[in-house]
């Protein structure tokens, strides 16, 4: 374990574009966007209240232990539902709550639009404009990185790569900063939310990711590891990348994701959770 100060010093001497960022849902919390964990309880409440003809107003605060216990006990008693904290909880309850693909898309749109980027996103955007960071990878559907860049410099060129748009990968130009959407872009694409959809993460994007990381480190922010599709990369990394590294860590992530992080860095360094405090502002 090292300090944040040590990690920042390491990052400050890295060359431009030598480190990519990977953003999970936790990076967007302070911009007002719920995490996957928050949405799981939202889905459970929706299903429970409709099935029992109860107003959702009765359970406004989904963080209350008593509310969570009531909801979880209900689904545990019914049977056929994943246990609490299972890796497929999000995808299962999302599909159970909204079984229409278009309904899921509209739901995501309602949650990620009209939000302002936090200070951390503005800092990241500035680093991208200055070419310190060339590429951001994300499982998020929001456009906070793009919005932050537009706020600072509306004329800045930015490429969007998407798992559901193969042309965006084939036409990738490393000259410009880019945001790579691993689950699709809600503004243009079909989204990947359910278990089957997550398992179909486009192989060309996986290959593109591994190729891009061949000469780079990676900074991971707000990602818990509860993502079935990203786990596919574990196999690919073991086949193609060296496991000789120096691993710098500030905060804990799910153990299952470590096997990926410990392999992705031919530069022999994986930087983990740098600027997590900035992104929380």
Automatic annotation (TrEMBL):
Pfam families: SIR2_2. InterPro entries: DHS-like_NAD/FAD-binding_dom. It comes from the Bacteria. This is SIR2 family protein.
